[in-house]
Amino acid sequence: MQQRFLDPNVLAGISSLDLLAKTVVDGFVAGLHRSPDFGFSQEFAEYRAYVPGDDLRHVDWNLFARTERCYLKRYRGETNAQLTILLDASNSMNYTSGPPAKMDYARYLAASLFYLAIHNQRDAAGLIVFDQAVRDYIRPSTRPGQLARLFAGLERAEPQARTEFSEPFKHFQNLLHRRGIVIVISDFYEQPETIVSHCAPLRFRGNEVVLFHILDPEEVCPVLRGSALLVDLETDRRLEVIPEYTKTTYRAKIDAHIEQLRSRARGAGMDYQLLLTSHPLDAALRGYLSLRQAGN
Amino acid sequence: MGFLAPWFLAGLVALGVPIFVHLLRRHQATPRPVSSLMFFERGSQSSTRHRRLRYLLLLALRCSLVFLVVLAFANPFLRRATADANSRLLLIVLDNSFSMRAGKRFADAKTLALAALSARPHAQKAQIMSLGGQVDVRTQATSDDAQLRAALQSVQPGDGHANFGELGQAIRTLAETVHGPVELRLVSDMQRTAMPANFADAALPRNVELVLQPVVNAASPNWTIENVDAPASLSDPKDPKQSRVRAVVAGFSTPAATKNVSLLINGKTLATRKVDVPGDGRAAVEFAPLDVAYGFNRCEVRIEGGDAFPADDARVFVVRRSDPERVLFVHAPTDTRSAVYFGSALSAASHGSFVLQSVADEQATDLDPSKYAFVVLSDTGTLPAIFEHALEEYVVKGGSVLIALGTSAAHQSRIPLWGSDVKDAHDYARAGGAAAVGEMDFSYPAVEQAQPGADKGGWVDIKFFYAAVLEPGQARVAARLADGTPVLLDKQLGEGHVVLLASGLENLTNDLPLHPVFVAFVDRTARYLSGNERVSGAKLVDSFVQLRSTAEPVGAVSTIEVTDPDGHRPLTLSDARSIQSFRLERAGFYQIRFANGRDAVIAVNPDRRESDLEPLPKDVQSLWSGGSGGGPTHATAAGSVELKNHPISLWWYVMLLVLVSALAETALASGYLGTQREEV
């Protein structure tokens, strides 16, 4: 089972990079991730003037003795991050113009991230599979066997039904009690403002949200030999389309959609990454991680 | 429009193949799944419709290709009546035989022929012929209405006997020059007797379509004088054996009736007899004695009481009353038997018409041969030179001589008048046997017989013990012995004839005089040599009479006069000086003055087969008209004109369309494939 997802070639590419969370969420385990909360770690962060209500235990009495001013001494604390992957398992993820399918590609991506987080970073990792509703939920944990459970959850995530962001994301807010990294893997066939509007609450609660946009190359540049009858995998609606349309109007529309989604996500403080199934998985992760490092 | 092989139309089921393929491609197009139709639009329907339209065009081309191939196998054809009518020759044959004089037959026939002429398209060529005693071509093929109508109007009823066999022969000859389709319209009373005994004689070429237009559908009762037996020449009117006329009255499709039959001589009724004619039968009536004046008497036997065909109620004949003619019989002094045998036979045969004058050859010096009907040289030796010269002139002017070569003549080696010598002599008696007749020409007048049996009319029993051998040269050989020796020869000499018997007339060189056939031989020979055979008795319409011999003497110019029954002279001056034979076209009495000065009156009667008015059975008519061109029977009594449609095959045109469709389909399909490659 693990051999399927943990492709050595993929992991070899990812192991040279550290998965660094941009912001530190709750946690106490020292690691590479810096917590946004100032705690009891040994690394000094800054001084801050005392304001009524502050804990007196954090007052630097030595400095008060020298300057008769009351300052609080703050330290940069190290903590374990909580990675939660929201995997879209709707029917549209089943589309493929050639292996791998978008769903498989998403599984590889999620598995790689889980392995990286749990095995290397000792982070807690969880999985939420959704389509119209939340179909599967594996609570983030660092317990032994978590990785196997996550992989099993990925195996169970067979595409079905259609994508609906509103209901599942309401549940996410109830399920995600701690701040952390939330990665949404989907093909995002929805209006960009709708997607961002539903993802924004996660961001508001202090989560680092990353949108992985999985698309097949044929979806970006479809090739039609003559007029074709297209069938929507989710709604089963049929439409006859001619090649001239896909060459011009469709490409413009999908490009506009991607660009709009990218801009709106970044506008909302979320990261966005377009991943084509034809591109190597390690290259995609590497590019993302590089992007995160550059962002720090 | 029709199909020569309509069962191939079952192949039209194959039309379902392109239709099925095109519909299958449209309905079984594999739907292509996509993640979402969010960014797709049905925004190019017009283009799709255009493409569908092009596919429909391809479908139509493929369907038309299959349809045309099936059509080519079915071999369609068009029936183009109008175009064919212009290209085919309308040949109108109007029957003007003697039977068309009955009732209104000829008038009706002419009306039908004119109607057929009017009904034809103006551009169609037509030709007019008449069918009487012979087939007369009245016009050449032309589209000139006036000329054709004038030709039809000029046709008058004749006295000849129509023969569909002669018509078939004429049409077969015509078809050798006219290779296009010919529509033959025969307007006739369709007499049964006009059809030849051999149906194949009336068969027409395949490009001739026969359309029969009979003017009558049923036989009419008709009485006629079928036959008259009367002496051609009469020397003694009181001779009860000769001076009598026997006539046979015949009825065709008639009930039993009593008829008055009259004998008219030179326009005066001499006697009238009543005769009971049985239904559809015959009865004989006899008139005796025959009291006629000297010279030629124009006689007529007429049946009284009208019927549908009054023109055939009379039959004419000529009786010539004259004193007996003398026959000069020159013989060798030692030959006494031959004159006895010949004289006895002559008197028995001619009933006193000839008187034999027998002289020895050495006593013939002062005799004038022109005073004799003919001369017989029986086994003569050397003739007196004066007599021989007179005999030569006599023959040249039209006299005739019978030469019999006995044993003594053979020793002379030279044959008087004959022009050649005796080469040898066969003495069969010395060889201990006799020779029989091996070949006989029964068309020769002296031995003429209509139907000789296996015994050759009795000649095969005659034994020849002796026969002279001579070179026939240009002479006509009428009889040969079994070993090929010519025994009876005829040579034309000027206007006359020299008949040579290579044996004697007595019973020493042969036993001919002992056989009954000798009397018949002498009778026919006497009539032939005297010239009575040519002009005696009655002749039928369209028979010929020989006016002069083919060998015209050098420098001798003789004129012949012919007067027809209407009193006209049908011969032009040039014809009168050169014509050799004359066709007797009309019924009645012809008066002829021959080149040798002899006069003759010839009675000409229509063929009695014309009196039988029974038409051809319908099935025979259908067989004739239907078998000529493979088409349907067109025997119609009315004048309706029904043109037969000729099929014109459209195979080549269909194959041309197949080629065009195949090229168009290939071009269109290639265009589609090219478009798809471009899209890839």
Descriptive account of the structure:
The complex is a heterodimer of chains A (296) and B (680). Chain A is of the alpha/beta class and 296 residues long. Chain A has two domains: 2-22 and 81-295, von Willebrand factor, type A domain (Rossmann fold, 3-Layer(aba) Sandwich), CATH 3.40.50.410; 34-78, no CATH class. Chain A has ten helices and ten strands. Chain A is elongated, with a radius of gyration of 22 Å. Chain B has 680 residues and is of the alpha/beta class. In chain B, α1 packs antiparallel against α2 (45-74), α2 packs antiparallel against α14 and α7 packs across α10 (517-530). In chain B, β24 (476-481) and β25 (486-493) form a beta hairpin. The two termini of chain B are 50 Å apart. Chain A binds chain B through residues 92-93, 95, 102, 187, 189, 216, 219, 222-235, 237-246, 249-250, 253-254, 257, and chain B through 29, 31-44, 47-48, 51, 676, 679-680. β8 (228-232) of chain A pairs parallel with β2 of chain B, so a sheet runs across the interface.
Key attributes of the depicted protein:
heterodimer; A: 296 residues; alpha/beta; Rossmann fold; 2 domains; 10 strands; elongated; disordered C terminus; B: Rossmann fold; Immunoglobulin-like; 5 domains; eight-stranded mixed β-sheet; five-stranded mixed β-sheet; 14 helices
Task: Briefly say what this structure is.
Chain A is an alpha/beta fold and 296 residues long. Chain A is built from ten helices and ten strands.
